[in-house]
Specification:
The chain is mostly beta strands. The protein has a single domain, classed as Pnp Oxidase, Chain A, CATH 2.30.110.10. The protein has three helices and 13 strands. The chain has a seven-stranded antiparallel sheet with strand order 3-2-6-7-8-5-4. Bound molecules: flavin mononucleotide. The site of flavin mononucleotide has 16 residues, from strand 3, strand 5 and helix 2. The site of flavin mononucleotide (FMN) has 16 residues, from strand 3, strand 5 and helix 2.
Length: about 180
């Protein structure tokens, strides 16, 4: 079956993700960042995470040999996501460098700082695994990405379905969530 790349992209866009900005030091010593939603946890022992980068991106050439920070964006940081996706729009607020000496963004939900571990061929992308050196949860709500749009978590996620189930309070809690558009 011939795969239509546009249709595949559309289908894969139904898998909802958070949004990160991957930052590292550029050749000139200035911080560089790019918006990435292809980020995933991989392993706890050793502690590994993965990002998938387009070979044509500047970041792809940089993090081959450099430590990097995964900045997990907060729900109000949609414009920052666009800023680091080729639509510069603002003065970026940087936080203190990570323990690896990598630049990191201020006001994010969390950050994870890594040193390069392995990289793998991913077709027109390269899969980079980083070994976690430092991580911190700063708190807040996540920015989400779904079918090409930014979203935020819905607020109707109160516990429900206790009914008369033997799995009632003290047992398993079922928490329903929803996504509402904000773009
Ligand atoms: C929501 C969103 C998610 C993105 N995810 C990725 C991704 O996972 N991998 C990637 O290589 N590019 C991704 N991009 C595109 C890059 O952010 C964009 O190509 C960026 O300009 C690359 O910057 P650079 O070439 O200066 O390093 C994404 C863009 C957006 C808006």
């Amino acid at each position: 079956m011939a795969i239509d790349p546009r249709e595949l992209r559309q289908c894969l866009g139904h898998f909802t993700t958070g949004v990160t900005v991957i930052t590292c030091n550029g050749e000139d010593g200035e911080p560089h960042g790019a918006t990435v939603n292809a980020f995933t946890a991989v392993s706890l022992d050793p502690p590994l995470v993965l990002v998938s980068l387009d070979r044509r991106s500047r970041l792809c050439g940089l993090i081959d040999s450099r430590p990097f920070t995964v900045n997990v964006l907060e729900s109000h940081q949609k414009d920052l996501a666009l800023h680091f996706a080729g639509k510069p729009s603002q003065q970026v607020r940087w936080g203190p460098d990570s323990a690896c000496g990598t630049p990191r963004l201020d006001g994010t939900l969390a950050h994870v700082a890594c040193v390069p571990w392995r990289s793998y061929d991913g077709g027109d992308h390269v899969l980079y695994l980083g070994e976690v050196q430092e991580f911190l949860i700063h708190g807040g709500q996540p920015l989400l990405f779904h079918t090409g749009k930014f979203h935020h978590l819905g607020d109707d996620h109160s516990p429900l379905l206790w009914d008369d189930s033997v799995d009632g309070p003290g047992g398993v809690t079922f928490v329903a969530g929803s996504i509402t558009g904000s773009s």
